[in-house]
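Structure request: Beta-lactamase repressor BlaI, Intestinimonas butyriciproducens.
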Amino acid sequence: MNDCKLGAVESRFADLIWQNEPIASTALVKLAEQELSWKKSTTYTVLKRLSQRGIFQNQDGTVTSLLSREAFYAAQSEQFVEETFSGSLPAFLTAFTTRKKLSKDDLDQLQKLIDQIRR
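Returned structure:
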């Protein structure tokens, strides 16, 4: 999956699928009509685009994910750090913490994560 970015509307549509999968494509059309005010053609167009990007599939009228929501957002985060900070997580954290101070709880959770990774 090369493109880990979703627009705001694509993201809402993807969340509908992740929350309801597996879902019949006809049920997805109805859900997208209710939640997004989309027509059938719009639903199928966006589904096709996201399927071509390797996120979802529509097989025999049933829509499922090829990537879990968590895996997708992990890949999106990796891509952001790579593109914006040349892949440097310390550079990202430095930039992040210049404007947002981390709480003691945040720091404890990060330390726990570091300790787990080191094992």
